[in-house]
Amino acid sequence: MTSTNGATRLTGVNHVTYNVKDKDKALLFWEDVLGIKQIPSQVQSDRIIWLQLPDGTMVHLVQNEAGPSVPNHHAAFEVEDISGYREHIVSNDVEASEITTRKDGQQEFKFYDPEGNQIEICTKSGFGILV
Questions:
Q1: How far apart (Å, rounded) are the C-alpha atoms in residues 22 and 113?
Q2: Angle, alpha carbons 13-16-18 (nearest 5°)
Q3: Which of 41, 55, 80, 104 could make an SS bond with 126 (beta carbons 3.0 to 4.6 A apart)?
Q4: What are phi and psi of 15, to 5 degrees?
Q5: Chain-centre distance of CA 51, in angstroms?
Q6: C-beta separation of 92 from 80 below 8 A
Q7: Do the Cβ atoms of 129 and 108 come closer than 8 Å?
Q8: Angle value at C-alpha 78, between 74 and 80, nearest 5 degrees
Q9: DSSP 11
Q10: pTM, two decimal places
């Protein structure tokens, strides 16, 4: 195995995908509760909803009769005010874990969307970029 160089190095996250049974129901939660905005689809498929965060990272909700992946995968989304965001989530009748703190000072909590997909909310990592 060879090491990566500038031409072969991954540089960021373009999108994450969540499988859902009901894409329209899922869209309501992701837009109304999480505040992620829908953007025009860039593919010819009525099974995928495209959403985008302010930094350009996209979330794709893919309608799939099997529903969420098992075992469940997740993405972690950064926020400035983690306590305020957790309060917002709980005020929308969503059960959320308590906020925990890692060794580097990063805080996080988790919850599930109505489709059963795990979502993690976190602050910026405390150790910065290491590579």
A1: 12
A2: 175
A3: 104
A4: -160, 160
A5: 10
A6: no
A7: no
A8: 150
A9: -
A10: 0.82
How far apart are the C-alpha atoms of 80 and 90, rounded to whole Å?
A: 17
Structure tokens that stand for 13 in this block: 């996250």
> Could you tell me the domains of the chain?
15-122 (3.10.180.10)
Q: What is the residue type of 59?
A: V
Alpha-carbon span 52 to 36, nearest angstrom: 6
State how far the Cα of 129 lies from the Cα of 104, in Å rounded to an integer: 12
pLDDT tens string 29-85? 999 999 999 999 988 999 999 999 999 999 999 999 988 887 778 899 999 999 999
State how beta strands 74-78 and 118-122 pair: parallel
- Per this entry, what is the length of the chain? 131
Instruction: Measure CA 41 to chain center.
Output: 18
What is the widest separation between alpha-carbon atoms in the chain?
49
